[in-house]
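Figure caption, in words: inputs first, then the predicted bound structure.
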Amino acid sequence: MDSGFLQTIREAIPISMKEARQHLPEGYSIRLMSHHDYARISVICEMVYPTERPYSSEELAAHHRVFPEGQFVVVHEESGDVAGVHFTLLIQLMHFHLDDSWETLTAGGSFTDHDPSGHTLYGADLFIHPDHQHHGLAKALTVATRELVSRLKLWRMVGGSRMPGYGKLSTLLDPQDYIEKVKKNELTDPVLTTHLHDGWDAIRAIKGYLPHDEESAGWAAVIQWINQECTPPPDYDIGRIPPKNI
Ligand SMILES: CC(C)(COP(=O)(O)OP(=O)(O)OC[C@H]1O[C@@H](n2cnc3c(N)ncnc32)[C@H](O)[C@@H]1OP(=O)(O)O)[C@@H](O)C(=O)NCCC(=O)NCCS
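Bound structure (coenzyme A present):
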């Protein structure tokens, strides 16, 4: 189907975020990102990723331009401040390698590789201001993106989960074994455990997804959530996507 036509049909259906709102704790609301949010988002980004360059207003404007309905923010109502974000884009995963870096999957953070005909919603980023963590905001933002997957009749969501608990264990444990132990609740990871609790499955360890992520010793986990309501498209099998590094 023509991708422009597909995009027009998809945009014609309003976004409700009804289920996400049910998961929000009291005092918070959820909506799509607007240009008023850019400065605050850059500040939060700098706080949660001190070793990375934070998003610039130009990059956030580019995300909004290519896929406005995929950029979610949670707002702390009393202060009116953005408390957390979830940024997504559509891709054909078969056009990539399983262990491609965040830079590659997001076209250098610009999201200009967004493909309206893609079957996979790629969760490019999810972060919460430290003062608002552990309130269930990541959960609500994840539910919002799942609602988007359902509305767009997509097959799945894929992401790369940091595993910041792995760095201190990296000399003792293989990264894949670490993921299996987190999956079995034998170990708790500050990020991967949250994703698993929020319904994602961890597929395999990849190296170099965020090369400067020292806490994760440069490793990440490919995570996936399948929309059971949708028929698998031709590129459904993540096992057929070849890695390039491992
Ligand atoms: C990972 C991250 C996004 C999680 O965000 P969060 O909003 O704190 O996540 P949640 O609150 O939904 O869940 C975290 C924990 O809080 C718990 N929680 C949820 N609601 C709660 C509430 N009302 N009161 C207390 N705890 C609560 C959850 O149960 C969960 O704990 P568990 O994993 O032991 O079950 C956040 O820590 C973050 O921004 N980290 C830095 C950036 C980053 O690494 N992002 C991920 C990139 S892959």
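The pocket of coenzyme A is lined by residues 25, 48, 126-128, 133-139, 161-162, 191, 193-194, 197 (CB under 6 Å).
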